[in-house]
Amino acid sequence: MHLLLSGIVGSVAYGLSGPGSDIDRIGVFAAPTAAFHGLHPPRESVVTTNPDTTRHEAAKYLRLALGGNPTATELMWLPDDCYETRTEFGERLIGIRSALLSAPRVRDAYLGYAGQQFRKLESRGNGTFSADTRRRTAKHARHLARLVHQGRLLYATGVLEIRLAHPEWFRAFGERVAGGELDEARTLLAEAEQDFDRTRSPLPDRPDEATAERWLLDVRAAHLPPALSRESQRRGARGARPPETGSISSTSTPPKPITDQPTPS
User: Where in the sequence does UniProt note compositional bias of the Low complexity kind (predicted)?
Assistant: First the structure.
């Protein structure tokens, strides 16, 4: 596994962490290119606990990011102090982050994940539950508000805000909803849907898959076995193509012509 980019995400990155908060990490790695041709292709994701870490292979990560997945997307927009690994390919990935965005997928992904958080809140009841359940309910409410805020901003400006400018508002919102003010969460989600509908986004209708493909192919070329990698680089420098199997080389010696033999007397 060759780690290309990794960092701390979640509440620490948002500025919402408190005592006992988990530290979540996400990363992108490149599997050896030759491994994809064996009987057992490499895993697309590696998830561990203690520490809580999720790492996606480069191709899967791109599919998630192109689909607007909020957690995958935020890795490319982290504050500098949240990155733990930044290779050359990681820097290039950060450099193409805007090319991976599209208006419909940002809208659907952020509203979709916010809706999931709301359904979790609805299942909690009216706020008369244990202290531990209340903490988890407040966390779901903060996530809902954060997803709505980040999604609206990204959709309207093309820029993803990771470290929240006013984290105290999100904490207070979480406590109010955990205390039984579920209607406040319902209203926030409904207003967000209306806001998306009336906002003209600078983002394109589709992401730039060609740019993503070029990055991935460069990653694959760089993770070939050394001999193949050198040959690939030489061919790329020459712009040459290998001869097709069975073709006649232009340098081959031409066959001798057949001449008439003298008739014996």
Answer: 242-253
Q: What is the per-residue pLDDT across 30-73, written as a single tens digit (0 to 9) for each?
A: 999 999 999 999 999 999 998 899 999 999 999 999 999 999 99
Burial of 76-109, coded b for 16+ CB within 10 Å and e otherwise, reads bbbeeebeeebeebbeebeebebbbbbbebbbeb
User: Which residue, among 165, 160, 174, 76, has the nearest Cα to 110 in the 3D structure?
Assistant: 160
Domain ranges of the chain: 2-101, 103-198
User: Can you give the length of the chain in residues?
Assistant: 265
Write down the pLDDT at residue 180.
92
How far is residue 169 CA from its own chain's centroid?
28
Of the options 1.20.120, 3.30.460, 3.30.70, 3.60.10, the CATH number for the domain spanning 2-101 = 3.30.460
Residue 41: exposed, middle, or buried by beta-carbon count in 10 A (0-12, 13-18, 19+)?
A: exposed
Cis upstream peptide for 51 (omega within 30°): yes
